[in-house]
Amino acid sequence: MGDGLRKFSASVFSPRMGMCIVLGFSSGMPLYVLITLLSAFLRKQGADLSVIGFFSLVMIPYTWKFAWAPLLDRFEIFGLGRRRGWILATQILLMLSIAMMGFCGAHFLAAAWLALAVAVCSATQDIAIDAMRREFLSDSEMGLGNSLFVNAYRIAGLVPGGLSLIIAQFLPWEAVFVLTALCLLPGFLITLRAKEKKTALAPRTLKAAVVEPWRDFIGRNGLSHALLIIAFVFFYKLGDSMATALATPFYIDLGYDLATIGIIAKNVGLWSTVAGGILGGLFMLRIGISRALWVFGAGQMVTIAALAILAHAGKSGIPSLWLFSFAVGAEALGSGLGTAAFVSYIASITNPEYTATQFAILTSLSAVPRTFCNAMTGILINHLGWENFFILCVILAIPGMALLIWIAPFKGEPKTEIP
């Protein structure tokens, strides 16, 4: 019992977990700079809402990062390893690009080019960090490490979406963006000091880096099982993603004012999701990824029903704040648990030789429901109403759970063989 507890504590408080937290923060912050801080800056500079809307196009690199991921698998830069060199290079460019944004003023074209540079560098940093995390975490640490990473990624949004906006009340925008950029410095320093784990050799050619990840993925799993994995990646988070696509309009339709939504929905939702991710990671140290996919997936599916209950209560008037908090917190907790298992599963089935490319491909596939299916949620809600829509979301979570029979049996580990 004592040895088991010591091993558990050593895993939880290891330097590798600290790296996951710091690199998760560094990975998430540039995205939130583009989503929140840049929009506030542009509006304060007098940009029209249509102009600010067009700036969302700079997010395209995040959905196409798999296109250049083979470059990171094939080439090493600065002699620092296939991962560290790319991470350090992108972090330097990110700090410079973010810092320069504050000096653009009303020159919106210059701001657009810098925003695009941030998006490309941020997506590239994500590819390298995802690969490095997969390689330095052991199989038993995968669950907790990925959970801490994802939660640090989310919490990073509090800097550009909160702290930086507060600072902007007292300092000029040039200083705000410089100080925000410096928040990436801890990630740079920890990457500089890190020792990259020696893994499989890089692909011999760029063509091999593009073709071999697919050949390896299909070769290890067989075509039919590879297609099952792709279907699972598509369906596992589908119901959860659709349920929260129009969360804020749902809360408004229930009759809550914006202040209540901001205080309860955003705060309870964020910290419940973080709690779910951390608890999920800790439990995965004990039960493994396969069992976590089943248990957390079931929790993720059931907690969507809390939103259906909230919608039903809303037919008789504005639901109580207690029910509102419970429904939002329950769904966010279930989502956090499901995400912890899901990201760990994706990491576990990648081959160390092609980690960057395979991880980028699978995470891009997982974003398809969020991009296209979520676009249909408004039409569905108009025809079904909120309560029936959330019931549909519960039903849409069932195929992902059913695929676990073949993907990750409850009493085994995910079915894929890593050479």
Quick synopsis:
With 419 residues, the protein is mostly helical. It is built from 22 helices and no strands. Helix 6 (84-101) runs antiparallel to helix 11, helix 16 (258-313) crosses helix 22 (398-407) and helix 20 crosses helix 21 (386-396).
Describe this structure in words.
The protein has 419 residues and is an all-alpha fold. The chain is built from 22 helices and no strands. It has helices spanning 2-12, 15-44, 49-54, 60-63, 69-74, 84-101, 108-136, 142-155, 159-167, 173-182, 185-193, 206-221, 223-235, 238-243, 247-254, 258-313, 321-348, 355-366, 368-373, 377-384, 386-396, 398-407. The longest helix has 56 residues, at 258-313. The chain is globular, with a radius of gyration of 22 Å. It starts with a helix and ends in a 12-residue tail after the last helix. The model has no long low-confidence stretch (mean pLDDT 84).
Major sheet, described briefly?
none
The first-to-last residue Cα distance is 33 Å
Helix/strand-derived category reads mainly alpha
Report the uncertain regions.
none
Average pLDDT across residues?
84
Rounded radius of gyration (Å): 22 Å
Shape: globular
Individual helix count: 22
The portion of residues assigned to helices is over 70%
Strand content: under 5%
Order of helix and strand elements from N to C terminus? HHHHHHHHHHHHHHHHHHHHHH
Oligomer kind: single chain
The total strand number stands at 0
